[in-house]
Amino acid sequence: MSFGRRRARVDEHRAGDPAAVRTGALVLLARREYASAELTAALVRKGYAADVVAEVVAELVGERLVDDNRYAHSLVRQLAQRGQGPARIRQELAQAGIPAEQISAAIDGDIDWHALARNVRSRKFGADVPRDWPERARQMRFLQYRGFSNDHIGSCLGDAPGVPDSDS
Question: At what angle do helices 86-95 and 100-107 cross, to 10 degrees?
């Protein structure tokens, strides 16, 4: 007995029908935005013929119903609002099949990553910057996990550790 949701595969008569593939693509696109490679993979997983899927997706790209650039910018905004950093977002875009130059263009947009890192850190840990190394390390690991670079982390924690010398 299986309790998981089972996806119905397309029957073999509709698998090669361009109209059926287009309908399947539009049903998926009605739910959310897809990158072209991501949409192609989803349709092939459903059982549609790969060559017909490639043609239909190319038509949808030509009609601008599928736009990798728009998808990349949208995903960057969405993940940045969730507090994700550029490295983590870059990885998500690469998994979606977005080309490297489009990834760079989307990430290098109008988001201030330093300010976002400061905001994420202060929401999680409070406004005070830690003065002891164990707490600094903990916060640094958290920000690295979120996808922020060492520059972003250094700017929100301060470059100097702030630990007073024992000599003074």
Answer: 150
* Structural domain contains residue 165: no
Enter the tokens of residue 68: 């990798």
Q: Of 57, 15, 63, which is closest to residue 40 (Cα–Cα)?
A: 57
Q: Give 62-78 pLDDT, tens digit per residue.
A: 999 999 999 999 999 99
pTM of the prediction? 0.80
Q: Which amino acid is at 77?
A: R
Both ends of the chain: CA-CA distance in Å?
71
Domain count, the chain: 3
Residue 29: give the domain boundaries.
18-62
Residues in the chain: 168
